[in-house]
Write a structure and sequence with these properties.
heterodimer, A: alpha+beta, B: mainly beta, Jelly Rolls, Immunoglobulin-like, seven-stranded antiparallel β-sheet, six-stranded antiparallel β-sheet, 3 helices, 22 strands, globular
Chain lengths: 61, 368
């Protein structure tokens, strides 16, 4: 899976605790919104990608 | 085959319970469902093509070879109207060690429990498929993802210029129980090109700890020439040591099975297709709910292409971003948050729809 970038997103609709609620990621040239679900393979791949030196998930705005 | 041999074979099939019920573990084996499109000019690493079929174009080193994968209409194999076709568009005759081209179907652990893997009752199973193309030898590997360091078994098969049904029977594996869950547990991997990393040893023809060098020994290279083609259809995996006739399921059944992993809302049939309904929670944001036709395997990721929000009264506003909201959505209902670049009316009902573009869509993915 070719991950180019990843950034946490905080919901602007339902987020009473101001937590990260998803990740915006560019994967294979497409922009995906990825849920923080360990069973989601995009999310699992992003976590593995972030372990590589030089990669990180950007903090939410 | 003599009558006695036929009866013996039938008895074996009956004993293994292959006649009754649903036999084929593979989804979309007849290559009918193509939600993502019907032609893929360049497939990046680990990307899907026809539904449920993953193409990995690198095993570590990127090959210079390129291919077009497509859903090909076929008329020369009675009973089948479609095949997955590979067409080599750029050759690569200088194969680096880590290169690989792998066509895969991946299975949830809960869908392969009937193999009884990791028990003393482990079942033999048979993989069958129809292939034609440029004459080559390739390999089919069965890979256990659950067991630490993985376990694998493989066999080679030949392709000729005419359709041929390949039948490969594999022993059951008494080691390595597959998890009974919705995660990836077992892969069918067709190796069509590989470097020394995958070919340098001795082919793993018996179950054992996976050794990269033993996974694709003896194969030719699909990338050897731009003349090369590869067609496959009628893929079936079933319990037992006999290949029974391909189990044809209806298109609707196959589509529903595929939509557990990928759902594309928006067909190339008309513009302004509606995908879901919601409301504006602020001047430039809101929430949209998209009903999912089947429960997805996991909470899905989502991507959009040229969509807009519309109240069906005033002009529509292009949707600039979408985010999943897993707190209120899930595997049965996708709840998305939209962002727009110009104002909408807070608390008014809005629909998410395609623009004047038949390629507009929302795609949701819960692939393995």
């Amino acid at each position: 899976m070719s991950i180019e970038s990843a950034k946490y997103i905080k919901s602007v609709v339902t987020n009473p605790n101001n937590e990260n609620t998803s990740i915006k990621a560019v994967i294979g040239g497409e922009t995906w919104s990825v849920p923080l679900d360990p069973a989601n393979t995009h999310y699992a791949a992003i976590l593995e990608w972030a372990k590589i030196d030089g990669n990180s998930i950007e903090a939410a705005d | 085959m003599t009558k006695a041999a036929e009866l013996a074979k039938m008895g074996e099939v009956l004993t293994n319970g292959q006649i009754g019920g649903r036999r084929n573990i593979v989804i979309n084996g007849a290559m009918q469902v193509a939600q993502r499109g019907t032609s893929f000019d360049y497939v990046t690493t680990d990307a899907y093509s026809l539904d449920r079929f993953n193409i990995d174009v690198t095993g570590g080193d990127n090959s210079a070879g390129r291919l077009t994968a497509s859903q090909a209409a076929i008329t020369d194999l009675p009973g089948f109207a479609n095949a997955l076709k590979f067409d080599c568009t750029t050759a690569d005759t200088s194969i680096a060690a880590g290169e690989a081209l792998i066509l895969s179907q991946r299975f949830e652990g809960q869908d392969v429990q009937q193999l009884k893997k990791g028990t003393s009752s482990a079942e033999k199973f048979t993989v069958s498929f129809y292939v034609k193309g440029t004459a080559k030898t390739y390999a089919l590997e069965v890979l256990d993802i659950d067991t630490t360091n993985n376990r694998s078994i493989a066999q080679t098969f030949g392709v000729t210029t005419s359709w041929n049904r390949v039948v490969l029977t594999f022993d059951g594996d008494t080691t390595g129980v597959l998890d009974d869950d919705a995660n990836r547990s077992l892969d069918l991997n067709f190796f069509l090109h590989a470097g020394a990393t995958y070919t340098g040893g001795t082919l793993d023809t018996a179950w054992g700890a996976m050794t990269n060098a033993n996974r694709a020994v003896g194969i030719g290279s699909f990338y050897s020439s731009t003349d090369n083609e590869f067609f496959i259809t009628g893929l079936q995996m079933e319990v037992g040591s006999q290949a029974t006739p391909f189990e044809h399921r209806s298109f609707g059944e196959e589509l529903a099975l595929c939509q557990r992993y990928h759902y594309r809302a928006g067909k190339a049939e008309s513009a302004y297709t509606n995908f879901g309904q919601g409301w504006a929670t602020a001047a430039r944001a809101g929430t949209i709910q998209i009903p999912l036709p089947v429960e997805m395997r996991a909470e899905p990721s989502v991507t959009i292409n040229d969509v807009q929000v519309s109240d069906d009264v005033n002009s529509a506003v292009d949707c600039s971003a979408i985010a999943v909201n897993a707190a209120t959505g899930g595997r049965q209902l996708a709840v998305l948050e939209f962002t727009v670049g110009s104002d909408v009316t807070q608390y008014r009902s809005y629909g998410l729809r395609g623009s004047n573009n038949t390629a507009s869509h929302v795609s949701l993915s819960a692939e393995l």
